[in-house]
From TrEMBL:
PANTHER family: DEHYDROGENASE/REDUCTASE (SDR FAMILY) MEMBER 4, DEHYDROGENASE_REDUCTASE 4. It holds the Pfam family adh_short_C2. Belongs to the short-chain dehydrogenases/reductases (SDR) family. It comes from the Bacteria. This is SDR family oxidoreductase. The lineage of its organism: Bacteria, Bacillati, Actinomycetota, Actinomycetes, Pseudonocardiales.
Length: 257
């Protein structure tokens, strides 16, 4: 999929914070929001990768790159406060940071790894919401998108711990939408396999064979997800909250895992 021409600067004057944004889906989301006029803070753990991402995004007056671990409460607060200080607001939060260090049957799972998955994929997302609410959104409103997964909507086999964390994130999205309306909208998106380094193990053994299972006969791209996120944080989605929107090339519609 090639990048579509976004609406002309419809997010101009708004500031976004995208976590896990040095590459993959997070980087694609940051690039898309930037193209629509937003100022964007990107966070990730590794400074060098963040610097490279920021340089690739261009527009240095509208990009702030801050290293930090999503699981670190102090780093979350610092990212939110720096965004408000630099850009004057925090209108959009995209909780994209996620990990998956645990593969295989849950009965044999390393519980430490499972705890870490939930800490980053669920608890840290809530932590960022709390910080955004404290620093800006509680008084001024905003839009939040959580990066879920089709693995949170159906059993996911060898990545079951990851899928369970994404199911929790979907429920968290609904609870937050109920509690934070009407001034803050909270939605989630649920991608299937997207061609990123994070998901590479799921298709490296044969991309064409994996893609053949999808009605669209291809895997997703970061831009497929980014355009959906852009819609959900825009005024065009002003009556949408508490939703988890699949972006899966029709995979779940087939009834197959």
């Amino acid at each position: 999929m090639t990048d579509a021409t976004p609406p002309a600067q419809d997010l101009a004057g708004r500031a976004a914070l995208v976590t896990g944004a040095s590459r993959g889906i997070g980087f694609g989301v940051a690039r898309h929001l930037l193209a629509r006029g937003a100022a964007v803070t990107i966070t990730a753990r590794k400074q060098a990768e963040l610097d490279e991402a920021a340089a690739s995004l261009g527009a240095p007056d509208r990009v702030l790159a801050l290293p930090g671990n999503a699981g670190d409460a102090a780093a979350r607060a610092a990212a939110v406060d720096a965004t408000v200080e630099r850009f004057g607001s925090l209108d959009v939060l995209v909780n994209n940071a996620g990990i998956n260090p645990q593969y295989g049957p849950l009965v044999h799972a390393d519980l430490g790894a499972v705890s870490k998955i939930f800490e980053i994929n669920v608890v840290a997302a809530l932590g960022f919401v709390q910080e955004a609410h404290r620093a800006w959104m509680g008084e001024h409103g905003g839009a939040i998108v959580n990066m879920a997964s089709v693995g949170g909507l159906r059993s996911s086999g060898v990545i079951a711990a990851y899928g369970a964390s994404k199911a929790a994130l979907i429920r968290l999205t609904e609870e937050l939408a109920f509690q934070l309306g009407p001034t803050i909208r909270v939605n989630a998106v649920a991608p299937a396999v997207v061609k990123t380094k994070f998901a590479e193990a799921l298709y490296a053994h044969g991309e064409d064979e994996v893609a053949s299972r999808y009605p669209m006969k291809r895997l997703g791209t970061p831009q497929d997800v980014a355009t959906l996120v852009g819609f959900l944080v825009s005024d065009d989605a002003s009556w949408i909250t508490g939703e988890t929107v699949r972006v899966d090339g029709g995979m779940l519609a087939t009834g197959n895992a």
